Amino acid sequence: MANARRILVVAGSDSSGGAGLEADQKVVAAHGCYAMTATTALTAQNTQGVTGIHETPSKFVKKCIDACAEDVGIDVVKTGMLASAGTIQVVADALRKYKPACSIVDPVMVATSGARLLKEDAIKTLCTELLPVTGLITPNIPEALLLLKESGNKIDEIKDLDGMKQLAKAVAGLGPKSVLIKGGHIPLKKNYEVATTDDEKEVLVNVLYTDGNFCVFESKYQMARNTHGTGCSLASAIACNVANGLSMERAVRAAGRYVEAGIKTSVDLGKGAGPINHFHSLNIMPFPPGGFVDWLLEREDVQQVWKEFTQHEFVEKMGDGTLPVERFKFYMVQDYLYLTQFARANALAGYKAKTLEGVAASASIVTHIHTETKLHVSECLELGVTMDELRNSEEHQACTAYSRYILDIGASEDWLALQIAMFPCLLGYHHIAKRLSLLQDPSAPKTANRYRQWIDNYIADDYTQAVGKGMELVEGHVSKQSPSRIEELVKIFIHATKMECGFWDMGMGA
């Protein structure tokens, strides 16, 4: 949920999920709002039709509305199938009592087959009680004509755009502040007259009448199979847009585009007219907030190379103290040279950062690397390596390949990609040291394993804090990326991890 805009949906349930309350809740979720429901009827239906309706007693519908309004509160009410005169009266009374900012009424009165879904007394109650307190009503043309007929204002057949405008203005006379006439039942020619053949069907037009003005929303006619629940979805999208602060005209325009895209991107479900795609504009993240690192390390394409890195022969021999000192000495010299390039990469990250805090964070990391380098120098001196040898040693190809790969990512991509290229080093050494520390004999002196100090360095408080800060920064930035970008970042991580394996291979003399 992106905000706390509260949408109460009063409508019937669709057991197949494409229309009714089920569609409404998907739309509300897709718009980042919070959905509440008062179920007016249960329906047994699918993409081929309705086989049964079980109405909810209007007194119980009232209890549902009151429960939501008196606790959570309501910003916008959207209604769909209201089923009975009693339920319509309940909704009208609730609108007067709780006074939400707006109400969107989708007058579900006529089935696709042409059958009436509301009895005459219910339609009368709709016209006399609900419409006068309605913010926007969204009838299709048959529903609008029926409303006028039942209220004694019959209009003849609609033949063109002007007829739709006349119809919208007439329905507005029944009391709603705004009227949206949906033109899906009458595709038009380019001159806005009703098409009489399939070849003539060029455009679909919806007409909004609000504040005494007409707004015409035109879209290209498309032959579409999957249109189940379009009316419900359109009205719910308008409700969300209004709740999010859009004007009625902008809310309707945005909702129309949302539904149109939902039709275009739908997949075939069922044997009849299937549902639209309600989530076409959402990026579904494969991990929860703060869960990127866990998700990353659990991926199948990461696990094997991560294991090769963190459980490499070089690592295992350090853990049990059997690594030849000469191999460790060579590794330490190359690691010193690598750290110089690693510091450059973090300095580059400071340049890539967009905030002063980001620049300062990179500077802090460079300072930490400088401190770590001093530890390397001390260790190398103990191993008999002089400063001149350290400074004048030639980089091994593995060291050059890895460090320059990181710098290349930093030069060619963004801040986050650079962090991901350095991530295996940051995470991996801490991960390795934690595991190896658990394998050490707690009763033995630390000098029992020549490499115990190396292990302790990477589980020390300062390094542990650096790892935590690095993870926090990456988690915060990666949550803003698209799924496709995350896949690109994973590839960078995998390649950098392979480079780490190559560094260990170098240490073993492979």
TrEMBL record:
Protein's name according to its UniProt entry: Uncharacterized protein
GO CC, one annotated term: cytosol
One protein family per Pfam: Phos_pyr_kin
Domain of life: Eukaryota
UniProt organism field: Aureobasidium melanogenum
Limits of the Pyridoxamine kinase/Phosphomethylpyrimidine kinase domain: 14-277
Residue stretches making up the Thiaminase-2/PQQC domain: 301-508
GO molecular function, a single term: phosphomethylpyrimidine kinase activity
InterPro entries found in the cross-reference section: Haem_Oase-like_multi-hlx (IPR016084), HMP/HMP-P_kinase_dom (IPR004399), PM/HMP-P_kinase-1 (IPR013749), Ribokinase-like (IPR029056), Thiaminase-2/PQQC (IPR004305), Thiaminase_II (IPR027574)
Any coiled-coil regions, as ranges: none
Gene3D superfamilies according to UniProt: 3.40.1190.20, Heme oxygenase-like
GO biological process: thiamine biosynthetic process
